[in-house]
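CHRD domain-containing protein
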Amino acid sequence: MKHSYIYLAMAAASFMTACSEKEEDQTPAPVTTTELVATINSAQQVPTNNSTATGTFAGTYDSSTDQMKYTITYQGITPTSMHIHVGGPGTGEGQVAIPLPKTASPITGTVPVTKDQATKLLSNGMYVNIHSSTYGLGEIRGISAKSKRMRVGGFGSEQ
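Predicted structure tokens:
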């Protein structure tokens, strides 16, 4: 009988130890991507012009890989070059930070992004500029901004 109590006590201790161990951390992995958007038009060009050309920019910056995937669409313009420049709203011609291919719309790609460029991209400090033969310094442009779509726990929602 004495042995039964010892075995019962050992079993209870083992059970309590097993139950008290923490389960694996259930915290979801941090979101490492930020969605970026821009409406591209002549009203944002400095100085503005009368072009009716328009476009859109949609990008996803991934801080874990320091890369940005992007899609640019445009209409009403025959581009001679395209870039992402350093500069915020209302600034003049900024330094070219990321050259983009001059191809037919839509344009998609992935580019490396430095930490400094990422900081500017995420704080309205860079813009997409599409140049033409009519407007050599840029016909249309759009400031890159964080999308109002927010990811919470892996799910997207409109804000």
